[in-house]
Amino acid sequence: MKKRFAISIGIVLVVLLTLVSYHRFPVQTKGAFFTVFPIFAWVSVDQPVLFNHIRHTEALNLNCNFCHRYAEKHRSAGLPNIELCKACHATDAMSKKPEALKVVKYAQAGEEIPWKKMYELPKFVVFSHWIHVQKGIDCSVCHGLTGNKERPVKMVDRNYMAWCMDCHQKRGASSDCYACHSS
Predict the structure, then answer these.
(1) 119 and 32 in one domain?
(2) Which of 62, 77, 135, 167 could form a disulfide with 71 if both were Cys (CB 3.0 to 4.6 A apart)?
């Protein structure tokens, strides 16, 4: 009887401590959770082509801006269009793997690949890629494992306001509301 009571009290205390920590220190609590359970920090995204970021960034030595051409000068980084893919995937000469052959089919048909947007911020949030690129912030700070996995992955551990505010405070960036909530 005493053992059950002690276990019940222990569980209640852990739950209470977790709730207080989460509401008092949300960024740190989420950060600790994702540190302990990193598998929950990202989700795979089903794309029409399983784009192998590792192959393109490490083996071919392309940087993020090669495909996401607007990141250096515009608010949106942009998605790669078929004209860019055609540079290497116009024929099956270089494309032997099944996923690369899908790109060849899109290129030969002149059709855009219907990529799914991986990161969608609310309409009232303005995220300017070019400002972050000019400040020398690596893409992986916000996109994490996105460019380091064979499958396209979306980071879910950092797509919320408290995480962004924490990053701004650590880097001495503006935390004025209109810095990110203007048109």
Answers:
(1) no
(2) 77
For residues 30 and 40, what is the distance between their CA atoms, to the nearest angstrom?
A: 11
Q: Which domain holds residue 127?
A: 41-80+115-180
pLDDT tens digits for 23-68? 666 666 777 777 788 778 788 888 999 888 888 888 889 888 898 9
Question: How would you class 177 by CB atoms within 10 Å of its CB: exposed for 0-12, middle for 13-18, buried for 19 or more?
Answer: exposed
Please state the domain count of the chain.
2
* Token digits of residue 55: 């192959």
Q: Are residues 76 and 9 in the same domain?
A: no
Show the beta-strand stretches assigned E in the chain: 42-44, 153-155
Based on the fold, state whether residues 63 and 125 are members of the same structural domain.
Answer: yes
Q: How many other C-beta atoms can be found within 10 angstroms of the C-beta atom of residue 123?
A: 7
Question: What is the tens place of the pLDDT at every residue in 76-99?
Answer: 888 888 998 888 888 777 777 888
* pTM (global) more than 0.90: no
**63 shares a domain with 1:** no
